Amino acid sequence: MKLEIKVGIDFGKLASDIPKLIDGFLSSSKEEIVGVSKDYIKSGKVNPDIFDSTKARRKRRGNPESPPLYETGVLHNSIKSTDSGIEFKGYGIVHQTGDGVTKREFIVLSKAKDGIKNLISNMKESLRRKSPLVLKT
User: Fold this and answer.
1) How many Å apart are CA 80 and CA 107, to the nearest integer?
2) Whole-model pTM?
């Protein structure tokens, strides 16, 4: 009895292509992530809501009481795409990570739908072997 196995995938090729694929995903998705993140802040979807004391302080200053992270618009306006990634005002990372303040994630990676679709498609293509490997016993 002869056994023949055809292998049409190449995990080694995918492993070597992963850094290039991730760089491509980030490059193509930066603008989309920036736009979605800015909309997320401006629409007031950032959670959790700000404290009553913060709302009172904003009111005393003559600024709007909400949305969170949009008192003056400086953080919102500073979010931009660069060659090295996405940049924003330094205090933004404190809010994104919750380092000493209430954590309010405003960079929205999960909404980069087009970029994610392209990444998955490129990974499938990289996984495919051009000519199947045939193992015979």
Assistant:
1) 11
2) 0.65
